[in-house]
Structure formats: structure tokens, C-alpha cells
Amino acid sequence: MTTYQPLRYVYQPARPPAGRTLLLLHGTGGDEHDLLPLAAHFGTAVNLLSLRGNASENGKPRFFRRLGVGLFDEEDVIFRTHELVRSVRQLSEREGFDVTQLVALGYSNGANMAGALLLLYPELLAGAILWRPMQPLVRHVPAFCTNRHQPVLLQPGIKDSAVPLSASAAYAALLKQGGFELSRYDANAGHNLLHDDVQAAAAWFHEHFPEPVVSPERVLSPR
Ligand code: MLT
Questions:
Q1: Among 60, 65, 66, 131, which residue has the most ligand 1 atoms within 8 Å of its CB, making it the best to mutate?
Q2: By C-alpha distance, which of 50, 15, 54, 53 is closest to 36?
Q3: Which residues of the chain carry a pLDDT beneath 70?
Q4: Which of 80, 98, 99, 136 has the smallest number of CB atoms closer than 10 Å to its CB?
Q5: Cα 160 from Cα 79, distance rounded (Å)
Q6: Is residue 135 lining ligand 1, measured as CB closer than 6 Å?
Q7: Is 33 a catalytic residue?
Q8: Ligand 1 nearest atom to the CA of residue 132, by list position
């Protein structure tokens, strides 16, 4: 029987430590360092937790196995999602971040893991940004519902040959039906990520998760 393994990670607390944490999830062949430079666009008042997927495709890290492009091993999606959640909960105790204030930022396979979190743990994330996502569970769609009405941003590419826009629309409708507050930004791109994607996501993030106002008492030194 396969047992859950911890995921490799990088944790960078904001200074001073923030309530909010961005959960960074890389694409196929990436690792926990990939998205850190892009996270700089999301401001300084956010902790960063970046994970490396435990699945491997010919040595390339992924968050779950696939049988072909866009064809996922759904049993593995479910197993790896439980594994990741267990790891994140352990890390929140070790590193001291608030697990209820996680906003996922995932690209491609990482976006699909973030989507699996929305479907299988609908109350877990405070929000999610999905760059070039695909619906991760199609044969095993769980009955899911959130009462937190968390904001979710989908960013499909209109020229992405792997993901028809009709599939993105169906995925958005499913998430909306489960209680998420959906926004969508259709990028004029394929599966690759553009600078415009990062800017659109950062603007959405600042709108939905504004930085806390620091009162003058906290920034002035005592006399
Ligand atoms: C990828 O290249 O990673 C796919 O498009 C998405 C996935 O396999 O999850």
C-alpha cells in the first residue's frame, strides 16, 4: 500500500509575517522554485509556500500522474490531493501560517492540483488563481459545495490546443455551481504564460485580497 509522503517545499514568510499565504504550484517539469519570482507581483504582505509535486513523469515533477495529455489518472489525482493537504496542514503547524488563509496560484498541472483542492476540499482555500487549467476530475466529480464563496480566477488561453474554451466554460460553471465566486480572464495565448497573465492575476488578487492598512502607531517607533 502506498503511504502519504511529505512534499518538498520552500516557505518564505512576509516581513512582518502576514495572515495571507500564497500556495504556489508549478507546472509539469517545474519545481518549488519556479513560481517564486512571479510571486513578487503579488505584493510583499503575503507569505509564500511553494511545493514540489510528488509524482514523476520520466523524472519530471508533477502533482499527479497522467495517462496522456489532458487524460488524468483520477485515482492518483484523489490520492495526491489528500497527500498534499496532509502535508500542507503539517507545514502550517511547523511554519506557523494560517491554513484558512491560503490562496493557491497554480500553472498548468499546478492549476489542476489547485482545482482538485477546490473540488475535494471546497472549504480549504481562501481563493485560487488557475493559469491554463483543465478540470482535474471528470469521471469522479465529487458532490462539493462551499459556503465561504471564495473567489476563483480562471485564466485559459484562447489558443491553447490542449484545452477547448468550451471545456473551460463547463469547468467554470461547475465551480460556480459549487459556490465559488468565479472570474475569468481569457488570455490571447496558448498554454504558455504571458506577462499579461501575471498582471491580470495580480490585479485580481489585489482587488480580492487587499493588503491590510498599517496604522501609524505600528510604523512609528515609541518615543
Ligand atoms: C501539463 O502539461 O501539465 C498539462 O497540460 C496539465 C496536466 O497534465 O495537468
A1: 66
A2: 50
A3: 1, 213-223
A4: 98
A5: 28
A6: no
A7: no
A8: 5
Assigned C-alpha cell, 21: 499565504
The structure's pTM equals 0.94
Active site residue 221: no
Question: Is the Cα dihedral 35, 149, 206, 20 positive or negative?
Answer: negative
H-type helices in 62-209, by residue range?
74-95, 109-120, 165-177, 195-208
Q: What is the pLDDT of residues 136-160, one digit of tens each?
A: 999 999 999 999 999 999 999 999 9
Strand 9-12 with 47-51, pairing: antiparallel
Structure confidence at residue 223 (pLDDT): 47
Record the cell numbers describing residue 101, joined without a space: 488563509
